[in-house]
Amino acid sequence: MLEVFLLLGFLLVLFVSGLTLMNVKVMAALLVIELFSLPGLWLIFRRSPPFVPTPQKIMNTMMKLAKVKEGQTVYDLGCGDGRLLIEAAKKGAHAIGYEFSYPTYLLAWFRTRNMRDAVPRFGNFWKQSYDDADVIFCYLLTHTMKEFQEKIWPQLKAGTRVVSHCFKMPDIAYAEAENGVYVYVK
User: Fold this and answer.
1) CA–CA distance from 111 to each of 48, 79, 91, 136, 179 (Å)?
2) Which residues partner with 37 through β-bridges?
3) Which of 60, 74, 127, 152 is most solvent-facing, going by the fewest CB within 10 Å?
4) pTM, full prediction
5) d(Cα 169, Cα 136) in Å, to the nearest integer?
6) pLDDT tens digit string along 33-84?
């Protein structure tokens, strides 16, 4: 929805400002900057799912199946607005989320700004280490789950729980499933 409003605003400014050559150059540069800052567009190029807020029922299922305990380290890959970080931190875990869309990251940062143990980070979750993870939450597309299986799964310690909403790892059997949430235990 944010993308639509930003794009409409851009088109309105372009229409009102007239089409002088200078305005077209400036507006084209602004359009490029704007498009790459939109939550959904950059992720489409990365072949990742767009930001879709996790429904409360699914979040409750994810938290239940994750069995988050006080003192654990929890990661949320593509943390969106930070709602799973907040829930994990309320259970006493140290929750770290990675978000690659800057506007969505800012929303997560704003929602968690007063919480010491809910930490959203702007960045690419593929370039991080998860060897200390007790729980990893993810909402990744099928091909991305295959990539997760190849790149991140091998570095996890024994007992790490991976909780995936909707999408499964292709070659690893899940330990539990409920309401479209799959749990894998390393």
Assistant:
1) 23, 12, 17, 20, 26
2) none
3) 127
4) 0.76
5) 13
6) 555 545 445 444 555 566 778 899 999 999 999 999 999 999 999 999 999 9
